[in-house]
Design goal:
4 helices, 0% strand, mainly alpha, Four Helix Bundle (Hemerythrin (Met), subunit A)
Length: 119
């Protein structure tokens, strides 16, 4: 099923909201990923290990956020180009239910399943 203009606009607004939300989280995540102090007098060894673990988790969350922001930007570019909602692999329409769950989806269910089974 081909998306109509109203549906595309609704997905565009959803993508913009997601982009804003992730950008806001990015600022708080950068603070948590800052360098952990090496001063053993102010932070005990176990506390420092916890801080290092928290820093690593924050960096990974930041990496995932950045990937999601890239996917969202690509989806917004596809909307501008008039290609939004088409599978990048087979060029068939992506199901509306799939886009509702992930408005940045690039593959239809069949192509995504095939790609997953190859990995």
């Amino acid at each position: 099923m081909v998306l109509d203009d109203k549906q595309v606009e609704a997905f565009r607004l959803q993508l913009l909201q997601l982009q804003d939300d992730l950008s806001a989280l990015k600022a708080t995540g950068e603070n948590a990923a800052r360098v952990v102090e090496l001063d053993q007098t102010s932070v005990g060894r176990l506390s420092r290990m916890d801080a290092l673990q928290g820093q690593a988790m924050s960096k990974e969350q930041g990496r995932r956020r950045e990937l999601e922001l890239q996917k969202i930007s690509a989806a917004l570019r596809r909307i501008e180009a008039g290609d939004y909602g088409d599978c990048l692999a087979c060029d068939e329409p992506i199901a509306i239910k799939r886009l509702t769950l992930d408005p940045a989806a690039t593959l239809c269910i069949r192509c995504a399943s095939e790609r997953e089974s190859q990995n």
